[in-house]
Task: structure prediction
Amino acid sequence: MDLRCPYCLNETRPELKPGIGYCCRECQEALPKDYVDPLNSRARIGLVGFTGHGKTVYLTSLFYTLRVLSNRDIWRNFSWRTCDDHTHKIKYSDVRNFENSRLPASTPENFPRPALIHLQNVPSMGDIFLSFYDTAGRVYESAEKITDMGRFVAHADTVFFLISLSESGLGKCDMGDVSFEMERLLDIYIRGVYEKMHVDLSDKQEMVVLLTKADEIDILPEDLHKFLNESSCNWWMNDDLEARFSALDNYSERIREWLRSEGCGGFVNLAENNFKGVNYTLISSTGASPVGDTLVTKLEPEHPKGVINPLVFAMRSACSRESAQGVRSFIGKIRRR
Amino acid sequence: MEIYQFVYTKVPPEESPWNIRDFHTVFYPVDLISREDLYEMERMIHKPQVDGFRDKLTVFYRKIDGMDYLAILYLTDLPEERDVFGRGGLFLCHGFLFPPEIWMMAQTPLELFDIVKGHVFNGIEDLLNSGIVDRNSGNIEAIEISGYSPPGDMRPPLSDDLKLKIASYLFKMASGIRDCPPLLLAGEPSDVSELLDEVLFYIPDELKVNLGWDSAFDGGSLYHYPLKILGFREEMPYGGNPVSVDLYNRTVDCPGESAGLLHPVSTYERWLENCDERVSREDINAAYRLSLLVDSMEPPSSVEEVMPQLENFSYINRGPIEGQFRRKFQELFGMTITDPDLPPATMLKFLIEGASCDSMAGFIESLVLDGYLTEEDIKLPGEITERSRILRTIQRLWDGADITDEIMESDSEERRHIFAYLIGTGLLMKNESLKDLLRDDDDFNALLEEREDLFDILNSSGFSVSGSESADDPEDGSDIINLNKVKMMISGLFRRH
Result:
């Protein structure tokens, strides 16, 4: 079965090499067994956002929170593991530093090495294989850079648009300027991926807007503020996950409307007219603003807010994609008979 | 002479001429470098994300305004610096661009880095306080150097097996004759750079421009990086099937199908492997031009260009040179030569100059005279007959012209050669006027007295020597029969020759 190599991004039919395992025929890199397994759902996620908007901190916080979900058995029988040395290092070194209240360093403009993780027993979704790509925010300052260092986004199933309203000028200038900055990111992205890399975003790519550093948004409506504060890892301690999914959808819609009401309708419309689907979330990766690269108070599991929510949107899309493919494949088989 | 420079780092946006918050090229020679050039050079900047990383060099060549500049990027970690968000992870990459008139004088890139390393900025404050940067335009002044005199121009031959393997690999990579996987070198960045710098000396200038290395590419993507020669210390680059060199243990690990890439294939690589004299860059370039000639028949513009290595190169590569010599000889002279008894340097000169090669006229003269060759055996191009009066005379004879005048104008030695040839080939017996001319010629008669074999040939063909001509009637065919016999005999001698 052909699949896209997470390293070279080429469509490939993996070959099994004795003593090595599965390898990409194009770049020869070893591929994780579970990534190759056609029974596993897969989601490729690209992190998009200007510098300082929290991409790397989000990823670290996400890994941290996944550990919490597993360690505290918040998602029953849930576990996750890394699939290569690079991701292993993130989990056991960067996340460890994060637990000690140290934030990761800024990301250089290197071509990103994917973080590959395998989630097992995700409630309502089962097993899923995730690959994350994170690079410097500078890449999203120009369409040319996106086609080079950011070309992984062309093959992402879901892109996480990380936008910090405070870093976009909230508090220093009016919301029009903030909206301008949000649209600028989206406009560059569409030019790079749709115009230059010819990816049909409206057919291929879901978008999740992550309003990061949401604890700093002092104009947030009360209900959204409340939701943010409640959405720590413990929010998922609930047997009725479908209800949680439904709540996420409702809050997504609520955030969308709030953005519109704040004069960011241009961004919302541009996103919805160009992507297959758009969802909105509020995130606070650390729970409170750090001082420099250190958190003011020691990180506790409940501090990160909303970090699992975008992932849930991406995983649900992946699962519905897989089911749709399963149905298509089933119908195809019946027709052939 | 000017060395251009640029600086890529992260400064507070208000300090940047471009008002950018992230890493970017803050200062560069705005009149020299286009935006496209800048992007391409920024692609070569990889910050290794491993603990303990301090600094590294990246070296490559970049065409700017039609000229190949040597770019040396010095990337240094700034562990104490913080960006506007309070984050660490900052670094400064100071790039130097050397125009060809400078780098072509130097033996190796690092020799040039020694000139400029005193100019490297120590940190962001040092950069922003510098008087050579213009915060409005983003321009940075070039470094002026005067009177650069490169140290000694000779280096010992490459005798180290590992270095030879790497040189062979780089040569193939640079010449593009084979598809080479990336070359990874596990080692300290300084050791990687030192080794590659040393080996690069042995790569011809013409090819160097196709190479470049990054001495610390830890954790990088081989598949997406423009440079293919990469060092790493801790985290192996990913996404390829590289040839790996371990500088700690001095071992090479090569995927099966790439093993041949480490061994000499071209005549240049064979020269490099077997050369036992000290060499200069002129020698390297000369040997490369010669290898192009022998391996792909691309002649240099002149013998002078390759003269420094003509003898040595040809001695080492006698086999392939002889093969090409035979091919070209057949093409020019219409004759197959099996065992040319010529010095390999002469054969090389012939490959360069063709029939105009001075030493070939003498060789062909000997072949024709000693082998009694006729126009049926060999073609004599104008460039050859121009250089030999004997061959010119013989060609006229073949053309049916009267060569009386030529013989009379020849000196004594030439005449004796021509006479022997005329007798040996039997052409004398077909030419009445020559027979009449020679019968009383003193040189001719002296030759017959010295050369019993020639005397016998004439006698057996019915030619009366010294006024005693016998019944040599060409009508009855007896001369021809005898002459054919003679020619067969002589051809046999020539083949043995």
